Amino acid sequence: MIVTEVQDQAIAARMALIVGAVRFDQLFRAVRFDEVDGDILYVYAQDEDSAAEMEDAFALHISIIASKILNREINVVLVLPRKLLRSDR
Fold first, then answer.
1. Close Cβ partners of 51 (under 8 Å, ≥ 6 residues apart)
2. Residue 33 to residue 65: CA distance in whole angstroms
3. Which of 4, 45, 58, 67 could form a disulfide with 51 if both were Cys (CB 3.0 to 4.6 A apart)?
4. What is the Cα–Cα distance from 58 to 28, expressed in whole angstroms?
């Protein structure tokens, strides 16, 4: 399932409420909540450092928020650097 642009923005907006504006701009700049495969949500961050930090610190938060917005259970959040994204929408 491809995450729509509206769903992507909704997840990002909820994460902004949790982490705050400054932290969101640092860590979540250029984030893309891209695709769901089974119970895995694929997320693309701006770089490898951001991806690692986002996954370590906020994977649980992202899974809870995404589960509600996407109306399906998300048990795993896999955050990858944006350079691994196959194609931009």
1. 43, 44, 45, 79, 80, 81
2. 11
3. 45
4. 11
Domains and CATH numbers, the chain: 5-84 (3.30.300.180)
Contact 2, 34 (CB under 8 A): yes
What is the identity of the amino acid at 26? Q
The contacts of residue 5 (CB under 8 Å, 6+ apart) are 89
d(CA 64, CA 38): 15
Contact call for residues 57 and 14 (beta carbons, < 8 A): no
Q: How confident is the model at residue 85 (pLDDT cuts 50, 70, 90)?
A: confident
Q: Give residue 87's pLDDT band: very low, low, confident or very high (50, 70, 90).
A: low
